[in-house]
Amino acid sequence: MLLSWLRGREGAMTGLLGRLVRIESSSYEWEGVNRLVTLLAREWRRRGARVTRLKSAGVSRRGDVLRCELSAGTSAAGQILVLGHTDTVYARGTLTRMPFRVAAGRAYGPGTLDMKAGLVIALAAVDALRAMGHVPRRRLVFLWTPDEEIGSDTSREIIEREARRSEAVLVLEPGTGTSGKLKTARKGVGQVTIEVTGRAAHAGVNPQDGVNAVHELALQIGRVAGFGDARRGITVNADVIEGGTRSNVIAERAWARVDVRCARARDIAGLEARFRGLRPILPGARLRVTGGIDRPPMERRRAARLFRQAQALGRELGLNLEESSTGGGSDGNFTAALGVPTLDGLGAAGAGAHTPGEYIRTRSLAERAALLAALFRSL
Ligand SMILES: [Zn+2]
């Protein structure tokens, strides 16, 4: 029933997705994010939700956080938190090269998969419950944040506050692969910056008076690369480096930004300690090491029970749901780390997130909305 009703709504859902995608909403361009927030707020108000816009309060202006609350069928306590984000990784203007289009069962465009389809799925799930005459068992809070793609600086506190009063968190990030496997584990993610100060000198006249910051940095990168441990799910990658001025000047400064990930919370302290324990290798060089893991890992034990429930509900809908783990982080990392059961990857299925070929399979819109509605009814 749920799924067949939603199948009939696939065209409308795809149409709404097109409207959302055509409002460009890069994390760094708050005006665009807020235009999207205005459209979504209107959609939620039309469905009787209590809608609140929370202004971002960081150093740099970001879009607003949108909180939409639907009351439960009974006065029974408890809340389910649904997480999504309104920002994308695409700068304004991307749409001219990468327009929204639908072809052969796919909808293409910037942010279709990650994760404007998720925003559509949530609205459709609520519509389907209504149409079937069902009411959610608990209060539903939908929290759409404006800066997930750049670390959630302005929304992390709000996410954690809502999560603490929730029985479960459902995250509408895309599923894994074109079959849309649910995500039951994510690595913890962070960044470490290594800054080296050496001493400038003429590379030909008096090189012996210099301390080469680029050489020192290269040695340090070799060292930190060894911190990785595939067996334990630890990866360390220096992905951005900069240093020096000209080829005939011994480099005085150099720095590297290092991506750091780990699968288990208990590995964080040891990994960070190894970075803090770095000491200069070349005589006279100085080192400054800052940063660390800022999204803790989402460990599978927080999702296992929810996944089994989702899988059973999926079976009733005729959907075969599998689980997956990923090295990428999401806002689900924050809520799982608080000990709140968190199931991620409930958004659309597709491929090419963050690339020019990004798309969703349009049939997954109805499937995921049906699954979400079923979860609202039974959680
Ligand atoms: Zn995302």
Give short descriptive properties of this protein.
379 residues; alpha/beta; six-stranded mixed β-sheet; elongated; binds zinc ion
Describe the structure.
With 379 residues, the chain is of the alpha/beta class. The chain is built from 11 helices and 16 strands. The protein has a 6-stranded mixed β-sheet with strand order 1-2-6-3-7-14, with helices on both faces. Zinc ion (ZN) binds next to helix 5. Zinc ion binds next to helix 5.
Topology:
Elements: H1 2-7, H2 10-21, H3 30-46, E1 50-54, E2 65-70, E3 79-85, H4 94-97, E4 101-103, E5 106-108, H5 112-132, E6 139-145, H6 156-164, E7 168-171, E8 182-186, E9 188-197, H7 213-225, E10 235-243, E11 253-262, H8 268-276, E12 286-295, H9 304-317, E13 323-326, H10 332-337, E14 342-343, E15 350-351, E16 359-361, H11 363-378
Parallel strand pairs: 3-6, 3-7, 7-14, 8-13
Antiparallel strand pairs: 1-2, 2-6, 4-5, 5-16, 9-11, 9-12, 10-11, 15-16
Helix pairs in contact: 2-5, 5-11, 9-11
Bound molecules: zinc ion.
